[in-house]
Design goal:
2 copies of one chain form a homodimer. The first copy, chain A, is of the alpha/beta class. Chain A has a domain of 174 residues: Carbamate kinase (3-Layer(aba) Sandwich). Chain A has 12 helices and 18 strands. In chain A, the strands form 4 sheets. In chain A, strands 3-6-2-1-9-11-12-10 form an 8-stranded mixed β-sheet, sandwiched between helices. Chain A has a 6-stranded antiparallel β-sheet with strand order 14-15-13-16-18-17. In chain A, strands 4-5 form a two-stranded antiparallel ribbon. In chain A, α7 runs antiparallel to α8 and α9 packs across α10. The longest helix of chain A has 16 residues. The radius of gyration of chain A is 23 Å and the shape is globular. Chains A and B meet through α1, α2, α3 and α4 of A and α1, α2, α3 and α4 of B.
């Protein structure tokens, strides 16, 4: 018995007609001899509607009730998908998170999966059931309350099931047909990657490529789950050759030095001017920011002069107010001393990612030269082993992405 | 500690603003010193939308999946109501059916409540929680699947909780401000009843008055739960004197002989012409109808002549095709023999109901005289101890309701 996990995102189950088309794909895999675990998201728009209700009623909500409300969309799709499969004479039933039960931590709104017991579902497969349809995005806490895994969490549900059931593959059906060298809406010459390494996908996902939830890639990497991203909107033959396979580095024979260009529009750059420098000052700054729920991304500390230094960091633009409050409170409490706090809310982050960087020198030089040729000024730079990111003025973002896509020859396969 | 149960129907929680208004009523009862159990329906229109999805995908659906889908609307409202109460600084949390757990039979789509364990909720009340918000309409089967209690089932949830927790009262908030002598849309002189006996309410509910689910009244009668029907759309003072109290007969000091006039528009009259009469023929007819899911209401058998008889019964108009198929199949199988089957789909049922009938003669005579005076022809008559029902041409229905309302003086209190 080989188990295949198939996950359908919100646009792939947006209407009963789309659910029907998704079910046909499932039927094809059943015909191929698989027992299938289907993970479904809520119908497109439903979760946003529910989040809207919650925010309307309680902007500072109890996350346990938030989870109880926003998880309901997946339950609807799971039941409908099971019904559709039954209509096609395929033995199927639905499971809600608490029925599996998919056990998570109590971190409501962003719970982590602790265990996916396989007994119940394996027994049904043994009894002749062909498809288990699972409401994605949701689980149950040790206290018996419903939890959710964060936006995009159905991807993580899918990978967790693939790992727990030792699935042959985890197919993520979405509204794009794979992972591209960059966003086709920004760059006309973009190209779909046949394969991409977990590490690269992880960087791309963290950097704002919305195709997969970051945690799902982490999990796939840890358990070596073969993850395939493909479109539920195509209906061609030979479909198994399409899409992008996210896999271990050793499964990729040849690749470009740079796999893709990622970007994130909604960044802000904040600079603490003339901070009194002392050992522990970084902790004194970033402790309060973390407690205030500010997701600090890039950090740059300028050379200190006369015992004072400038500290620059970036964060999502909608967290600027929160960051300012945290810094001013820390200053008032005497934890830090600075002259001024300047927020630049008109910046974007552009990154190049590729495992080939490990063995190729000169990637940074090529990147900076390409940006300089377009007169794009770089405000902040950070690097990792397989990534270089820069903050630039937001108005140059598209120009920068196109220039880098050309500079690294991403329109051509390796 | 006194526990009050408050149930809010779909129109009373149709928007976040309505939920806010309902929460204010709850807050008032908390201020009055009650611990409150709130039962909520889905936001108006939601359940119909979900039922529509199911019918679109699978007209002959698996009732277990149907229940999983259509129960989700109540989960949304329960979470939102808990959040709204918390916003008003009232300690509250939501429970879904399986969390209580509200235990039911496995009769999906129309499950019966087996038990409402009180331990979890009482413990939270003891810890300081003031309001338990329960998703109505739903429970959990012995197999761990979600069940629903049938349309309008949140009323039954509410009464079951009131019985289990020995509540001082069960207030049903809806879009009308009580139980009327008849439907105000049909008769201008209708009057709200201050009190009505369980038995009367039961007949009215069965007869098509949509204000309460029939089973909820049965349950209230069995456990002597004081049931109050009142509007969530009024905001006046002295509200506790409004609405209609559904209570035991002995709590009603004086009442009219007839409490109300009920009607049901969507009836059909079916007549089997010249049925071969023999012992057991009724079972041979109504057995197959029952198996086909036809809800037979009135039954009349004419005097047999020459070993043959005419058998007339009524059923909801949308079950006529099913009834015809069942009868023709039974005929083909040799179970019954008849010459013809005639369906009259243009009939309506009008009934007068009142516990006073037990002690007052002449109610039937008054009824028939009033209808005759308006030239309304009676097609079928059935009676019970506290009710007389007639089938008439549908086009005379409103006329008949008004004539009976006048004839029994229902515009005046006893």
């Amino acid at each position: 018995m080989s188990i295949l996990v198939m996950k359908f995102g919100g646009t792939s189950v947006a209407t009963t007609d789309r659910i029907r088309r998704a079910a046909k794909r499932v039927a094809r895999e059943v015909a191929n001899g698989h027992d299938v675990i289907v993970i479904v998201s809520a119908m497109a728009g439903e979760t946003n509607k529910l989040v809207g209700y919650v925010n309307d009623i309680a902007p500072f909500y109890d996350a346990r009730e938030y989870d109880a409300v926003v998880s309901s969309g997946e339950n609807v799709t799971a039941g409908l998908m099971a019904l559709q499969l039954q209509e096609m004479e395929i033995p199927a039933r639905s499971w809600q998170g608490w029925q599996v039960p998919l056990l998570t931590t109590s971190a409501h709104g962003a719970a982590r999966i602790e265990d996916v017991p396989t007994h119940n579902i394996l027994q049904k497969f043994a009894e002749g059931m062909k498809v288990a349809v699972i409401a994605g995005f949701q689980g149950i806490s040790p206290e018996g309350r419903i939890t959710t895994l964060g936006r995009g969490g159905s991807d993580t549900s899918a990978v967790a099931f693939a790992a727990a059931f030792d699935a042959v593959r985890c197919d993520i059906y979405t509204d794009v047909d794979g992972v591209y060298t960059t966003d086709p809406r920004i760059c006309a010459r973009t190209r779909r990657l046949d394969r991409i390494a977990f590490e690269e996908m992880l960087e791309l996902a963290s950097l704002g490529a919305k195709v997969l939830q970051t945690r799902s890639v982490e999990l796939a990497m840890r358990y070596n789950v073969k993850l395939r991203v493909l479109s539920s909107f195509e209906d061609g033959e030979g479909e198994t050759t399409t899409g992008t396979l996210v896999c271990a580095e050793e499964d990729i024979v040849e690749s470009n030095v740079v796999a893709g260009v990622a970007f994130s529009r909604d960044e802000a750059k904040m600079t603490l001017i003339s901070v009194a420098d002392r050992p522990g000052i970084a902790a004194a700054i970033f402790g309060p920011l973390s407690e205030a729920g500010v997701n600090v991304d890039m950090i740059v500390q300028n050379i200190a002069e006369g015992g004072r230094t400038d500290m620059t960091f970036s964060c999502p633009v909608d967290q600027v107010k929160r960051a300012e409050r945290a810094m001013n409170e820390a200053k008032a409490a005497g934890g830090i001393d600075f002259h001024d706090l300047i927020a630049d809310t008109e910046v974007a982050k552009v990154s190049v990612v590729g495992i080939g960087m490990r063995s190729h020198a000169g990637v940074a030089a090529t990147m900076f030269k390409a940006l300089a040729a377009e007169n794009v000024n770089i405000k902040v730079i950070t690097t990792s082993e397989i990534k270089i990111s820069v903050l630039i003025d937001r108005k140059y973002m598209e120009l920068a992405v196109q220039a880098l896509h050309d500079a690294f020859g991403l329109d051509r396969a390796a």
